[in-house]
Each structure stands twice: as structure tokens, then as C-alpha cells.
Amino acid sequence: MTQNGASAAPESFDAIVVGAGFGGMHMLHSLRGMGLRAVAFETGTGVGGTWFWNRYPGARCDVESMQYSYSWDADLQRDWRWTERYASQPEILKYANHVADRFDLRRDIRFETRVEAATWDAARSLWRVRTSAGEAEATWLILATGCLSAAKKPEIPGLDDFQGPVYHTGDWPHEGVDFAGKRVAVIGTGSSGIQAIPEIARQAASLTVYQRTPNYSVPASNRPLEDADFAEWQAEYPERRRFAREEAPGGILYEPPIGEALTVDEAAFKKEMDRRWIVGGPNFRAAFTDVMVDADANTRVADYVRDRVRAIVDDPQTAEDLCPTDYPIFTKRICVDTGYFQTFNRPNVSLVNLRRTPIEAITPRGIRTTAGEQAFDAIVCATGFDAMTGAILAIDIRGEQGARIADKWAEGPRAYLGLALAGFPNMFTITGPGSPSVLSNMIVSIEYHVELIGRLIEASKARQGAVVAADRAAEDAWVTHVGEVAAQTLYPRAASWYMGANVPGKPRVFMPYLGVDAYRKRVEAAAAEDWRGFDFQPAGQGAEATASV
Ligand code: NA7
After folding, report:
1. Segment 309-341, tens digit of pLDDT
2. Fewest CB atoms less than 10 Å from the CB: which of 167, 209, 257, 321?
3. Does residue 410 sit in helix, strand or coil?
4. Which of 89, 192, 208, 442 to mutate to test the pocket of ligand 1 (most atoms within 8 A of CB)?
5. Helix, strand or coil for residue 416?
6. Exposure pattern of 359-381 as b/e (b: 16+ CB <10 Å)?
7. pTM for the full model?
8. Could you identify the atom of ligand 1 that is nearest to the CA of residue 497?
9. Which residues approach ligand 1 with their CB closer than 6 A?
10. Could you count the other beta carbons within 10 Å of the beta carbon of residue 401?
């Protein structure tokens, strides 16, 4: 609508990209390279996605900076000099902005523009998109909405009654927050809480951590990135990038495992665990081959970490409270910290175990548990996200014959290869549910999806602009396969956000696909068989497809 109420003609594009994080930026650049007229709509005022929103103190990537960066431009890869082994949020955001400037992406990004609805127009074979700023249409709709972008506040009565500020780590004020002299509460001890807590503890007068479930965490051992490290990576980049793309199960280079945790003798086990603990980072998880499939092997590693926690934390009860016991290690993403457990030895920090004394309510003054009320000046919710599906379902997407994505996904997300949906032609999800996504180096998975989407668009062009969607039977088989692969591991034993377990009422379905290497092999096998599992229909005939979802 125009300002005087008259309807303006929708803007027309070849492709609409939703989101200008790492997925959206790369997609936009790639579409341009194909000669397509593309636009990206972005809710934020800047690029960077996850790294635009998650500005809480201590925010840092748990994938090493030399691996958590784009590989699609050799000059960019050579020129950008990361300063630390693990990049901080400000540095990653700077990198995102550098990429946007360097490739002149901003001219095709509409900031402060939220995509509200998208409807497939079968007669015209295009998507009609409604944004907060107006209407647009395009042949292709690409959801680069991110896996951890719908911040989730806790369902605690009285949250809105609190008189002080309430922050969420996933939607942090751009101007920062000064906690000096303040009594601060942090609710949540996932990766975000574990990164933020040591930083807030240093600033605040007092910090009280409200923990429902303890998390396994290993030291980051972060350090400056030396010239020698940088030079070594540069020299080895082509092979290391290839290995990450094609052979590394998580798209990340780790030291190879030394054997099975179950069978290795005590001395060798301890030596390897000690060594990896000191080296730091998620490399710790790759020490043994059997930890994700054998509960006893897993327990042996988990015991090691619990003993470490007990050795670090002075107060025995606090130490026990910080030890996870009710789910296997690594079935939730391993946290990577800098002085997290040590923080509980500070005199101004205390831990409330919500398993013993649950929160009853947030009050105007503070937080009330079954043990009583405590007053605060600020509350930080490090309570996570409606992961993987939240940002997609926030858009009213309607495919063939008006079918709603919310209905299609009512019992859990369904997509072929985590990339395309039956009944939703010419629409793709970058790192969508059913693809390795959050179980991988996100950049590796993003780059592969951007490449695949480009190849599918070319395949459509080669078929006189045919409309492409997932075949329903192929989609069903893929969804079953994703679940079967997960069921062979210990992953489903944790009530994790991978399972949708952190959102009340969300279907309990294991959403990501396990194995970057296996995924690529399966996708390439399908592509080699003339894109098996995808239906190509002549444009303008999509409405004939079945209405069932
Ligand atoms: P996570 O990992 O989902 O952690 C959220 C934390 O918040 C977790 O400890 C939750 O406890 C806790 N939580 C959530 N709701 C509540 C309520 N109502 N009361 C008390 N505690 C609550 O999110 P993060 O942002 O830390 O990390 C997300 C990903 O980002 C991470 O995996 C990395 O990939 C990067 P719970 O475990 O549900 O008992």
C-alpha cells in the first residue's frame, strides 16, 4: 500500500531471499552471479544474522575462526586476518560487514523489513510476498532465516511485571549494558549463559545464576591467532576446505580419534582426555569413535568432565549442582567456555539449582523460588531459541492450493534433504531441518546449500523454466531416514532443542541430519540421477498437484 492507501504494484524479482545473515548474504551474491535479479529482506538494521542479534558479553563462536569463514572467494579468504583462535561476536560482525561492503551487497538488501507472508501463485508460477514495507513477487523464494534466530523467553509467570530491565541474550541491546554495581540474575545455562556468566560476574555487584539443567562445558583455550597459524592455514586452505566439505562428519577439522573410549586402557584414556582438555574447544568431543553410539563409552567421557568440574569448583554442593547427570555428553552441543566453572568460586556469584527450588514467579522486585524471593536490578534470560523451525513458521507461508506450512509441519518439520518441501514449489530452505545445519560448521552447510540452490535453479532453466518442488514420497523417505540415523545414536536421549524439547508443545522430532559427509554423498547421488526426488513441472501447472500436506 502507498501512504495514501492506494495499492502499489508489487515489486518484481527473480529471487527473494529472506534474511541477510551468512546464508542470505552468500545466496544474494551467488544469485547475482547467475545473472538473476535478487533482493534480500532483513528484519535487522544490518547484516550478520545470528551475529547481529547475539551481542551479549562473551559471545564468541565455538568453531575456530579460520574454519568459520567463507571459502567461496579466494581473495577474501586471503585478505581477512582473524585475530583470535575463536572469533568474538564483534569481530565476526565486522567480517560480515566487510563482506557486505566488499561485494556491494547492501544495495540489494532491504533492512528493517520483515517478511510476514508468502503465497505461491500457481497460475503465474511465482511467490507473492508480503513484507512489513509492502509487496513483492519472485520466481524463487529462499529462506535464509537462520536456525537460532527466534529468541525464546521463558514461560515464567510475572516476567512482564519485573520493574527492572529484562534482557535476552539473543536480542541484546546494541548500545551494550553496564552491569556495574547491579544485582543481576541470569536464567539459563546453555552456551549463551555459559559464555555470558563469567563476563557479567566481573562487572556486577552480585550475580545469581538460575540453572534448570547443568551443561557439559570444556575450556575454549582461546588465544591470539599467531602469524604462523595464519600462514599454515593459508598454505593448507584448499585441502583443508575440501576435507571439511567432503569428509569431516561435522564440516569441522578435528584431530582424529585415538580409538574406542570403551576399550582404551585407563592411562591412555586419561592422557588423551587431559591433552584435549588443555588443547581446548570442541575438538575434545572427537577423541573416541564410540561416544555417540555406546552409552558406557559416553559415561566414561562424561565422568571425566564431571571430575574436572569437581576439581575446579570449591564448594562441593555447587560443584555437584553443576555436574550434568541426566543426559549423555555431546547429545546437546558441547559448550565451550572461558572460566565458566571458576566463576562459581567468586564471592559475588551464587547458583540456584531449580531442580531443588523451582521458580514460582518473577515479581516486580525479583525472582521467587520455592525457597523465597530475591531482589534484582536486572534479569538476563539466556533461555535459547525456538530453533530451526521458529523463524520459518513465523512467516505465513502458503504453498500449492493454499496449504499452510504450519499445517504441513504440525507434527514436526518435513523437507526433502532439508532443502525443499513437497507442495511448496520453487522454495528452498538454507540449512533447513533435515539437513546437517546445527550439527555442523554452519558456514560449510550454508555454502553447500547455496551451491545446491544455484544448481537446482540451473536445472529448472535447462527445463524451460520448470517449477521445482520436492517429490512427496522422496520427502517422506528422507524424513524417515533423518530419524533413523539419529536413532542409531544417543542423541535422542537428551531433551535438547535438536528435539524441539525446549519449546512447550513443539513436536519431539530430531530435526538436524547427522553427518555432513554422508549428507553430501546422498545429495550428490540424487543429483547424479537427474535430481532424483525433485519434481520439475512446466511453469503454470503447479496448481494441479495434490492438496494434501
Ligand atoms: P540453549 O542451549 O537452549 O539454553 C537455554 C538455557 O535456558 C538452558 O539452560 C535451559 O534450561 C534454560 N531455560 C529455558 N527456559 C527456562 C525456564 N523457563 N526456566 C529456567 N531455565 C530455562 O540456548 P543458548 O542460547 O544457550 O544456546 C543455543 C545454541 O547457540 C547453542 O547450542 C550453540 O549452538 C549456540 P533446560 O536445559 O531447558 O532445562
Report:
1. 999 999 999 999 999 999 999 999 999 999 999
2. 257
3. coil
4. 192
5. strand
6. bbebbeebbbbeeeebebbbbbb
7. 0.96
8. 3
9. 148, 154-156, 169, 187-193, 210, 212-213, 333, 354, 382-384, 497, 502
10. 16
